[in-house]
Description:
By secondary structure, the first copy, chain A, is of the alpha+beta class.
Amino acid sequence: MARYGDIKKILKAHNMRITDGRVDILSFFVSQDRALTLRDIQKEFKNADRVTLYRTLGAFEKNGILHSIPLDGTQMAYGLNDNSHGQANHNCDHIHFKCDECGIVQCLDQPIPKVTLPGYQIKQVNLVMSGVCNSCIA
Amino acid sequence: MARYGDIKKILKAHNMRITDGRVDILSFFVSQDRALTLRDIQKEFKNADRVTLYRTLGAFEKNGILHSIPLDGTQMAYGLNDNSHGQANHNCDHIHFKCDECGIVQCLDQPIPKVTLPGYQIKQVNLVMSGVCNSCIA
DNA sequence: TCATCTTTGCAACATCATTGCATCATCCAA
DNA sequence: TTGGATGATGCAATGATGTTGCAAAGATGA
Lengths: 138, 138
């Protein structure tokens, strides 16, 4: 479990005010080694206000703590940025894997292969794989 | 514009009944050289029932005529399968590009680079890039 | 401690997606 | 060509999902 002081440092480093809700949610992200959907967070914090969650996640993303991962058109997952301990940096060029069995979304270490598209200007790349994860196979 | 007979052939080849609504929607997909969202289709067929659209798109996907493309967590696009004229075959291993300017989603000819994940069983791969498309740059 | 600006929580609203069911259309077989 | 079995459609109702405005509470720096 991450310490309270560490969580505060992350928020401060991204120029965000320290509030109880933000500390709780960010701690949850740090404690779970995976990407979380709004549903996951709602399940963990049952009496949290939905609006506040949306705004908190939005603020985390805007300030470079989280990156968003479009899953299946009705679900958005959020993962900690690799460099969330440092300055804001929105790049997130790793592969995501969603397990059909356990539903968990993982941020993999593996980078997305470079692709060049002549005539196009590429700003974002998102690669999501799905199937059965290493834990569920084992 | 695709001929009525061709559209019927595609539906028949995928073991689907021929109905007016299905013919209209499939014709629309064939006429547009791009992936369509539910919103695009609703804009084209203003008095179509939403439920029927969901079910039609779901049936097209299940029978291998369309593949779905998760865009940004709140939008799902659908594209014609390359082989939609033949037998059902759900594979769709090309790159998708969503333009931030015009909003159009294209199915590119370029295949998704092969990635191996030891310990994982991969069933689906989805790669969406976004930025500015060739038409908007030109 | 105070003043200021941000964040939160509630209410209301708008949109999106799903389910059940009665009716209608399609298609195959007689 | 027609009748019946099966599948598709449209409507109503419900539930889930996001968004906005605003007043109250909290965080931060002076």
